[in-house]
Structure formats: structure tokens, C-alpha cells
């Protein structure tokens, strides 16, 4: 196997060195500390918008390397203490009687063989190898190059693609970025699924950023990650994940989406549930550290561990969602539950149903979606570390403003509250003017519940208050701000026909503004330029119909350039006069 790899590497080097290219045919694009050569034709996929995605990934990778080192040192310290305790017991004559050494395992035998004066920690002093990173769908290789050049302590970065033009472009860009990139980054022409399956538990971090759905890569990805490693995964098929094609979402991800205001957060939770499902097949499970919805995609960062015992907790982390078709109230139904008796724990199906056939608030029917991941989608300790790192290296992140705004909002979310309410939806159901976010938050806090914003939607509010409390608050609001009468069968009329059980207190609460809001920190930023969104798949011919994606000026420039090139090719060559 080793000889084959050496031969392959040699062939790659020959290919790289023997392939000439004219710099005049390329545009140099700089992002962070990496530079790539982009051909004037749309041969290899590159999207400027994904700078937010790449910046966030660099920040998470830096924190991952730092946390991984801390965990390794803590493990070494724990082993050292254990070894020293065993050594002290041995020295004080507490070792097992002769004849029982073999049955007690190796520890006593190793203690006896330890040379005099040697520190017990010497046995456990293992060096932590630099993390190996796999970028499964590399295209231009920009992401892999940024990892290699910007992240300290990183090991080898393997960039894969099954498109020859992309691999050639990646190798060209590796060479263009100098010796550091050439030493750390290697580009291979391979099917990512096959490559990951044939390299089980070899990578500490795997990055999946496909054009569309990542579902076909997940099974092999969860197998290629080492214990405690990280999977970074993007999904851009938001129309599918947000309920536009529910049956397609079910076929790809195994969950049925609902079209509520919280659909983008539900998309995140569907993706997490899908990754967990694939991991469970190999006695593995996930621990999310950060999950974000930005621009036109969702991006999750999860750590993967192996444990048949811990895997049994998966049904406790999944829930079905019941959403009323009339008033958009929603309720969660856990898939599983546990019963503890003495020291034993039994895993049982969840109790249900949590709702009746008709909505208790407005009398309409429910739609049922899921299952979704209902456990926390962020680790607030990680989020704090990532945000602190980003702020300390402000100049090294091209999209600093955007990712720091997202991370700030994520850091203030309630971690244990799935999905969220929309003030506009509540007001729309009752046909009333919505209260301001500060007024509504104050009423919830004064009622004894918690409430926070969400990074997904500026008008979204996460709260642990049940829906009957929410509607009581809105009934009290409407009493002070009357509305026109609606038909009696209307959902809003049914809700307002009841008297509130809770008398809401709208006096301003101290915690009605988050720390970021109080300091007037920007949390939701506009797009930096027009047509900021998804781009064409590589290889597609750019025509006038793509103006909405790229902008009319860019499309006109490309079309004019193509026409000029065609005219030059059509011109007959002048005859040579001897």
C-alpha cells in the first residue's frame, strides 16, 4: 500500500510540474491568507458568498485544536495520578500477594518492572499528533488552503474531488500558494464516499460542503472520523429542508419538515437527526458544538464518539413536532423516555400523544413533522471560546462582522428550547398590532419564564413558556389594543373568545434586552452586496437567465467576452506571403 501511495504521489508531482498555464487567463482571488487562480470560464465552482462559511470553519477548527489539546493533557494528568497512586500502594506494601498477579491484570506486574527512579508518568507520556483534515469536496481547494495557511498546529490536509478540472485547479492553487501549502495539502482525484469508506477513523476533522444535499456522504463520513473528531457539514437544499418538498426531505433525511416560521431552525435539527441516525449504525453518536443558519444554507459542527451505551440515549434527543394549521401553536413529542429503578435504567417508548386531535387553543387540526433533534444544538462553552478567538484575531477574518454577529446571537440563545415563536405570526393570527419584542419579552419574564432571541430570525423568540401562557399574554395585549371583530370560525376569534387565566404584566423587565442589545452590538447585518447568494454549478453555461443570481452587469460582461472570443475564432487566418 505504501509503495502504491509513493508512486501515486510521484505521478501527481510530475503532473503538477509538467502542466504549464498562462497567468493572463486567470484572475487571482485572495481570501484570508490564501490565493487562488480562477479561470475566466465557469470550469470550477467558486462562491464568494461562502466566505462566511469558510471563516466560521477556520474559527471552529482553531478552537477544536485548542480543546483537543486541553482534553489530551487532562487525560494524561488523570493517567499520571492513577499511576502514581498505584506506585505509592506498591511501595507501601499494598500489592497483591504472590500468585494473584496474573489474575489482577498487568498493572501490578508493570509496577514491579518499573526501573528505580523512573517517573510513573513516563509510561503514559503520549504525544498528540497534529490533526488530519479531509476536505471531501474541494473544487478550487480554497478552503483546504486556508486551513493549511491560517490554522496553527494543523497536520495534513487532504483535498478530494471527482472532477478532473477541479483537481487540476486545486493542484495549481497549491503550487501557487508556496511551500507551506505544498507541504501540508495534497489533492486527490477520487469519489469522496469511496475514499472515506476505505480510510476508517483516520481523520480528526472531515469537512462536507456539497452543492446541494450532503445526505449521500454522511454514512461514509461518520465512519472516517476518529473518536472525538469533528464533522463539519453544510446543506444548501433549503427548499427541501424547509418544507417545499416534504416527501423529498423524508427520502433524503428521514424526517418530514413543517412550513412554520421556525423552518430554518427545523432544517438544522433535521440535519442533526440525520447525522445521528447514520452514526448510530456504527455504535457512534454526535455532540453538536455549533449549528448555524446563514445566508442560503445551514452548517453544523458536531463531534463524533463511539459508545454502545451512550448511543441508547438517542431516542431521548429526538422529538416529533405537532403544529396547528390554524394558529401555528406547536408541541413536541419525545420519541423515547427512561425509567430509573435503583441503579438500573430502562429505555422505553415516549408517552403520547401530547396533544388531542384538535388544537386546545383554536380548535383546528395538527400537522405532524419530524423526528427532529430536540436536544441542544450548541455547546455554549465552545461558542464562547470561538467568539473570543474571533475577536482576538479580528484582522484575520475577512467576514469578521458577519460571523461575530452570528456568534454573539448564538451565545445568547436558550440552549434547551427547540424552535421558536414569531411575533408577527402571533399578531397575524389575532389580526392585531404586534407588541414590541421588549414588551413581549418583559411579559414572559414577569410571568416567571425564560425568553431569548434566535440567530435564525430577528423576530424569533425562544421561550420555555407553554402556548397557553403565550396566548394569555396576547389576550391581555389585545384588551389594551382592541381589534376589529373577525368571523367566529376564525382561529383568532376562537382564541380571543376565552378569558385569560394569566393576567400579563407588561412592565419593563431588567432582562428584556439581551447584553448585546443593551450594548447596541450589531446582530443581524444586511448582505454586503447585491446578488449575494447561491451561484451556478461548475460547468454550466452562463446565459441571460442567470442575471438574478449573478447580477446583470456580470452576466453582460461574460456574454460580451464570449462573443468577442467567438468572433476572433471565426475570423480567417491571414495568408502568409513568401
Automatic annotation (TrEMBL):
Catalysed transformations (reactions): guanosine(26) in tRNA + 2 S-adenosyl-L-methionine = N(2)-dimethylguanosine(26) in tRNA + 2 S-adenosyl-L-homocysteine + 2 H(+)
Class in the EC hierarchy, top level: transferase
Annotated region described as Disordered, given as residue ranges: 1-23, 69-127, 557-578
GO molecular function: metal ion binding; tRNA (guanine(26)-N2)-dimethyltransferase activity; tRNA binding
Keywords: Metal-binding, Methyltransferase, RNA-binding, S-adenosyl-L-methionine, Transferase, tRNA processing, tRNA-binding, Zinc
CDD domains documented for this protein: AdoMet_MTases (cd02440)
InterPro entries referenced in this protein's UniProt entry, alphabetically: SAM-dependent_MTases_sf, Trm1, tRNA_met_Trm1_C
tRNA-binding among keywords: yes
Gene Ontology cellular component annotations, sorted alphabetically: nucleus
Compositionally skewed regions (Polar residues) per UniProt: 98-108
Record flagged with keyword tRNA-binding: yes
Compositional bias per record (Basic and acidic residues), positions renumbered to this chain: 1-15, 83-93, 109-127
Pfam families named among the record's database cross-references: TRM
Alphabetized Gene3D superfamilies for the sequence: N2,N2-dimethylguanosine tRNA methyltransferase, C-terminal domain, Vaccinia Virus protein VP39
GO biological process terms held by the UniProt record: tRNA N2-guanine methylation
EC identifiers of the protein: 2.1.1.216
Function according to Swiss-Prot or TrEMBL: Dimethylates a single guanine residue at position 26 of most tRNAs using S-adenosyl-L-methionine as donor of the methyl groups.
Protein family: Belongs to the class I-like SAM-binding methyltransferase superfamily. Trm1 family.
Record-given protein name: tRNA (guanine(26)-N(2))-dimethyltransferase
